[in-house]
Amino acid sequence: MALKKQNSESQSKSKKSLSSHVKKAMKKYYQDLNSVEPNGVYDFVMGEVEPELLIATMRFAKNNQSKAAKYLGLNRATLRKKLLKYKIHSDL
Q: Where does the pLDDT of residue 91 fall: very low under 50, low under 70, confident under 90, or very high at 90 and above?
């Protein structure tokens, strides 16, 4: 029980940390636009973040797509499509 609570607290801290980094990066992004109106921000951000998430998870899973898909909460076929989309190879 104590281990489960510790894992939950650890995950909560990492979520806050990631969230605070995203918040800071987005604030800077919008400030740096000056008076230029942004377009396609969602796709831009996902295109920057998603490949790094996939690469890190594939490395953590030692390039095992089944494990990586499980860690990400994705279907393995969905993971494979995303790896192809971003041209991420299994030799990480």
A: confident
